[in-house]
Amino acid sequence: MFKKICFVFILSISLHTLMAQENTPFTKPPEWSKQAIWYQIFVERFNNGDPTNDPKRENISIPTENIVPDNWAVTPWTMEWYGHDTWEKDKPFQETVQYRRYGGDLQGVINKLDYLQNLGVNALFINPLNDAPSLHKYDARNYHHIDVNFGPDPIGDNKIIAAENPVDPATWQWTAADKLFLQLVQEVHKRGMKIIMDYSWNHTGILFWAWQDILKHQQQSPYKDWYSINSFDDPATPQNEFSYTGWLNIPSLPEWKKVDITTPKVNGFPYEGNINSGAKKHIFDVTKRWLSPNGITANGIDGFRLDVADQIGMGFWRDFRTYVRGIQPNAYLIGEIWWESWPDHLMDPTPYTKGDVFDAVMFYQAYRPARYFFAKTSYEIDAAQFKDSLEFQWNRLIKDNRYAMMNVSSTHDAPRLLSDFYNTNKYKYNATPNSDAAYKTGKPDAETYTRLRLYLVHLFTTVGAPQIWNGEEMGMWGGDDPHPRKPLWWKEYSFQPENRNNFQPGPAVYDKVGFNQQQFDWYKKLTAIRANNPVLSNGDIAFLTASGKMLSYKRYNDTDEIIVLFNLEKSTKTFTLPAKATYLNLLTNKTISGNSCSLPTLSSAVLKKIQ
């Protein structure tokens, strides 16, 4: 096992060095993105490495929406998820959960980099770090600074921020939180890993410095044209006529003003347009700050994940790609495009992946049919339908981009995999106990674990880069937002048992929760298989069997071949192999000989020819 870990580490180091030397053609994704094994981090719930910087009530309060209780306090990391802290007493769970803070921070991420490297990941996607009052941090106070509570000196950082002219990058300083993030970037790069930041260039929060200036000065503000404002207040009247557009009509998320729109702007579809030039310049200034801190690109990040990308015009995205690649030719850009129409039709990624906008999108389009094949749901499909779904998605993409796709399965915005496989609902529809009283929130049954592990074999052997959401490898479960955002179940902690009947009437039934070593070991085995067999990152794919619930395919190139088999039938089935040979099953380290392989129900094999 020690030799295998070392090999993966050496492979990732050499990859990082190679990619630092070769510039990626403008229209292509960087080669490193095809070999990435992604881990998505939600910092506030990842790990509390520095309790001295834990947020205080004023850090999370928004003056116009100040409903944070006076006796608010940081929630203990090991408290039962559905329990109530002192300040939550006699209040509904859904009312207080968004105000919870557990104290996760950047030091907590740095402290766990060895853990992540041991797991086998080589690329980090970190949810928003920008300074913001909310849990999710898409409501920025400042784009150009890391959240003060993610660093070691919140009070000092606020003083630094207050002394700047936020519109003038020449006045920007590096806060303690900023410097700690740059240290994280260096530590990540030392390990041969990559790191990308998450931003929403579509909107800010109402505490954003430019918005605050507008609220104070109305039409006299130099930023009045940055936002989508419908009307300003007339001081001659008693009422407040100030009106503006918030993202999805959410008042706390005012939108940047969209300009030069030449095609219909419809949710779920791309459109031609741009962003106000002042806001755009600020966005570009922030982009440069993180890509090339102090003018040193080697110390910067490796790309961006762009939130709600369909809300912004394609002209902006083309300009953004040109600007980013002009600074860092090997940067990776991935957009979040999701629903064309909820809850049945996902967006078409094609317009965004032609070489002039993004390198990839978060590929929910490949996960949804996989769930319907591997999980036991009310929307079951067979192997032939699954094959057709995947080929449809892949065939409309340029080949290079297929391999660069981030194959997301669960995220901060979706149910955790174990709960998604345990419930039979349509994907992401009524996936919380609030929307469906019958939604199962407790520990899944044994069959769910088995089926999920089969899916994970597919995830790590299919086309595109696999992604692991914050704590999935620990065996965590939970429905849709807010439930996938529980604090992580680190092995060193003992957690209170969790009430699985949390929203349902009847007696409480408690599940023991905590780090699942068996689940971790399965993920680690799969990351090693992926890293040690480059054909799984760059090889072609050909389906061999797609009948009933039997599926097999091969990944191949000029020098290597891997055969992957799945039996989801109710009895043992025999697969015909492409050639008579001796194969090593990489999942079990056992060999088989011949031109056939029998698998019991609900099992898989990953075969490599050895002679």
From TrEMBL:
GO biological process, one term: carbohydrate metabolic process
One GO molecular-function entry: hydrolase activity, acting on glycosyl bonds
Listed Gene3D superfamilies: Glycosidases, Golgi alpha-mannosidase II
Pfam families named among the record's database cross-references: Alpha-amylase
Keywords: Glycosidase, Hydrolase, Signal
Signal peptide span: 1-20
Domain Glycosyl hydrolase family 13 catalytic, chain residue ranges per copy: 40-530
Entries under PANTHER family matching the protein: ALPHA-AMYLASE FAMILY MEMBER (PTHR10357), MALTODEXTRIN GLUCOSIDASE (PTHR10357:SF210)
Name the UniProt record assigns to this protein: Alpha-amylase
Organism listed in the record: Limnovirga soli
